Amino acid sequence: MMLEKIQLSALYEISKTLSSSIDYGRNINYITNILKSFFGYENVFITIVEPETQELKNFGKQDISYKKGEGITGKVWKHGVPIVVPNIFEEKEFLNKLNRDLKKYKNKKVAFIAVPIKIGNRIIGVLGVDKPYTGKETLNEHTKFLTMVSVLLGQSIELSSKIKEERKRLEEEKAYLKSQIKALMSKTGIEGLVGKSKQILEIVDMIKSVAPTPATVLLTGESGVGKEVFAKAIHYTSPRADKPFIKINCAAIPEDLLESELFGYEKGAFTGAHTSKKGKFELANGGTIFLDEIGDMPLLLQSKLLRVLQEKEVERLGGSKPIKVDVRIIAATNKDLEKMVYEGTFREDLYYRLNVISIHIPPLRERREDIPPLVYYFLEKFNKQYGKNLKISEKLMDIFLRYDWPGNVRQLQNTIERMVILAKGDILTEENLPLDIKKQISDIDKKENISLKTESKILDKIQLPKTVEEIEKEAIIKALEETGYVVKKAAQKLGMTPRQVRYRMEKYNIPLKKKSSRI
């Protein structure tokens, strides 16, 4: 009865140890001490099968190993059953590889009990103990108890192995993701500028040509396309890269403050001007100033900006002495400056001064092939920022590719950040999408369904000439074969939607020869 109480207490302590940590190396050390202190075992040996060498390695003493069938420990591994040696001094096959000091056992009877550690039917190790035998307890009771301990050990080692494998897999995926992003970035050759579309690569070529020169650049494009990213790309690939890059949003600062922000002011220039202050142009001297939303600059300031472009000098508010500046100007706008010039709301001479090199950045909906690399880029960025390791489902990526992104890259970035923050599982799916995007996608699906039904009715009524049908069927089969029977890719080659391709596959009885999760 006393032994049963001790065994229950020991099992409780062992279970508590195993549940508190997945580090089975640490756990084995704790369990060894528990077994010694609770039962007076002289020695506790735990050996684990080494997958590469297929040998039993003694935990903590890697230089000691057993082959299958070698000695008592090796036999337990080979046959998968406990073995009890009542007296190690009388057992010829007892190898004593651990170099026990047998002299101290001279006047004792010491038993050796070894039980297999299993995961299912697979033996992954052996638990062995030296038990001074007094006859008060049967060795059978200790063998049963150690078998229970070995079961707990096996479960702990299995869990630890699975976690290690999962971590390894995730690290490999992370490394692959990084390599993919780097590969995509290497296409542009500019850090932070991600994309692979023809339009973006053409812009990158232009940036590489323009960056070494001092030429003024005008960036145009819808709000959110990333004009600041392109402005930074020009600056950081130019000889001015080690000098300041100063940004100012002309639409975000009130007119009466914008002038002092741009050109600075002298002490006493106005109420509250207790000290002199440098403007953005002086702060950017030697570097680049990025004038975002230039179309919102007031006409009065436009004339002063024109002077900076012509004379390469600024004059602070309340000052009388011009200050020479060496600044490259990059301006950006989402407005039609030519129309504004015609309407008289933007100076014509300033427009032509700014429009030395004009770079138009197309909206995201016109360069959908840039969406996947941007998604992976932002996903890695926010995974790292918020300490997560999320992946993205293929169906969600399909939705990203179909959506028009009216807010362009900025909207895509904000959407992914929101999804990463709120995600509960390990994979981002369509369920994680914001409600407004879900609704818009649902509306697109309804329109496509109506369009398909209408097209189906028309095709049912109209008998196409056989030759036309054959041509269409052959084109679809060819596109499917060239894309490995991935409907989405075949649709892109044919200039159709995946739904339209699926409809024609059914109409012409074209089988999907290779299974694909991307249909």
Q: Explain this structure to me?
A:
- The chain is 50% helix and 15% strand.
- By secondary structure, the chain is an alpha/beta fold.
- Among the domains are: 2-164, Beta-Lactamase (2-Layer Sandwich); 198-362, Rossmann fold.
- The strands form five sheets. It has a six-stranded antiparallel sheet with strand order 3-2-1-6-5-4, with helices on both faces. A five-stranded parallel sheet has the order 8-11-14-7-15.
- Helix 9 (299-311) packs across helix 11.
- The relative contact order is 0.06.
CATH class of the domain at 198-362: Alpha Beta
Instruction: Give the count of helical stretches.
Output: 18
Q: Spatial order of the strands in the main sheet?
A: 3-2-1-6-5-4
Major sheet attributes:
6 strands, antiparallel
CATH topology of the domain at 198-362: Rossmann fold
pLDDT under 50 segments (min length 5)?
Answer: 462-466, 515-519
Could you tell me how far the N terminus lies from the C terminus, measured between alpha carbons in angstroms?
Answer: 66 Å
Full CATH superfamily name of the domain at 198-362: P-loop containing nucleotide triphosphate hydrolases
CATH architecture of the domain at 198-362: 3-Layer(aba) Sandwich
List the helices and strands and how they pair.
Elements: H1 2-20, H2 24-39, E1 43-50, E2 55-58, E3 61-66, H3 71-79, E4 83-85, E5 110-119, E6 122-132, H4 139-188, H5 198-210, E7 217-220, H6 227-236, E8 245-249, H7 255-263, E9 264-265, E10 277-278, H8 280-283, E11 288-292, H9 299-311, E12 313-314, E13 323-324, E14 328-333, H10 337-343, H11 348-354, E15 357-360, H12 371-385, E16 391-392, H13 394-402, H14 408-422, E17 427-428, H15 435-461, H16 466-482, H17 487-494, H18 498-507
Parallel strand pairs: 7-14, 7-15, 8-11, 11-14, 16-17
Antiparallel strand pairs: 1-2, 1-6, 2-3, 4-5, 5-6, 9-10, 12-13
Helix pairs in contact: 1-2, 1-4, 4-12, 9-11, 12-14, 16-17, 17-18
